[in-house]
Amino acid sequence: METIKTASFEYLMDLAKKNPEGGYTFVLDGTSYQIEDVLEISRIATAHGYIVIY
Questions:
Q1: Is the separation of the CB atoms in 51 and 4 below 8 Å?
Q2: Who's near 28: CB < 8 A, 6+ residues apart?
Q3: How distant, in Å, are the alpha carbons of 1, 13, 23, 54 from that of 17?
Q4: What is the CA radius of gyration of the chain?
Q5: What is the DSSP secondary structure assignment for residue 30, as one 8-state letter?
Q6: Residue 31 forms beta bridges with which residues?
Q7: Quick check: pTM over 0.90?
Q8: For residue 26, what are the CA distances in angstroms to 1, 46, 48?
């Protein structure tokens, strides 16, 4: 049986930490991403197999 992963967009946004030099550090499932815009979060979560709830 396959596990379905869901997360609210608000929760995922809380995982993004603003960097002093600009952009954000976003960590999901132990993988760290340097992103410029929080709108990239949905794409990353989807690539990890999450269904994002808005």
A1: yes
A2: 12, 15, 44, 45, 48
A3: 34, 9, 9, 20
A4: 11
A5: T
A6: 28
A7: no
A8: 29, 14, 13
Alpha-helix residue ranges (DSSP H) falling in the chain = 9-15, 40-47
Write out the H or E segment, with its range, that includes residue 52.
Answer: strand 50-53
Count CB atoms within 10 A of the CB of residue 17: 9
According to DSSP, residue 3 is labeled: P
pLDDT at 2: 78
Look up residue 54 and give its two tokens.
């808005």
Q: What is the pLDDT of residues 1-54, one digit of tens each?
A: 778 899 999 999 999 999 999 999 999 999 999 999 999 999 999 999 999 999
Token pair, residue 45, equals 């979560």
Give bridge partners of residue 52 from the DSSP assignment. Answer: 7
